[in-house]
Amino acid sequence: MSTGQRWFITGCSTGLGRALAEAVLDNGGRAVITARDPRSLDPLVERYGDRAVALALDLNRPDQVAEAARRAASAYDGLDVLVNNAGYGLVGAVEETDPAEYRPLFETNFFATVELTRALLPLFRRQRRGRIINISSIAAMAPRPGYGFYAATKAALEAVSESLAQELRPLGIAVTLVEPGPFRTDWAGRSLQLADTAIDDYADTSGASRQAVRERNGRQAGDPARAARVIMAAAQAEQPPLRLPLGSFPYRRMREKLGEIEGELAQWEDRAGAAVEFD
Question: Does 23 map to a domain?
Answer without folding.
Answer: yes
